[in-house]
Each structure stands twice: as C-alpha cells, then as structure tokens.
Amino acid sequence: MLHEPLHFRFARSVNIQWHSENLAPREPTSNDGLSWHLRHAIRCNCYRLPGEVARELERRQIFAYISDPD
User: Fold this and answer.
1) Residue of 2, 10, 24, 57 with fewest CB within 10 Å of its CB?
2) Main-chain dihedrals φ then ψ at residue 22, nearest 5 degrees
3) How many domains does the chain have?
4) How many Cβ atoms from other residues are within 10 Å of residue 25's Cβ?
5) Tell me, what's the pLDDT at 2?
6) Torsion over CA of 4, 21, 47 and 41, rounded to 10 degrees?
7) Mean pLDDT across the chain, nearest whole number?
C-alpha cells in the first residue's frame, strides 16, 4: 500500500509549551524515540530531525519531509 509522505515545515522556533508537556524520553526504545521525534516535528520543529533518526525512519519506510520556511 502506498502512503503519501508527511510534510513538516521547519520553523526554527521553539514551542515552549509543547516541550514542557512532552519531555524527551530519558532512555527511549527505538520506537519511543522515533515516536517522540515525529510528534516533535509536527508540533515544534525547533531543529531538524537528527540524521540517525531520519535514517531509521527511511529504513522502516516511514517518510517525512521537512521544509525550510524560506
């Protein structure tokens, strides 16, 4: 089954409320870490997905495209 890619806008600003309510897991499993980073990309976008996370998403065929606001 084909899925549309997820598109997120890279905002370069911190959503302080989101961060205070969604602390990154201290010792995340692979799934926990990926889940947090995807939720972060949707709600905050204060930085790009780390390369390791992006590679793991690609390996799992979960595609997310982050675009610069420029």
Assistant:
1) 2
2) -135, 70
3) 1
4) 11
5) 45
6) 0
7) 76
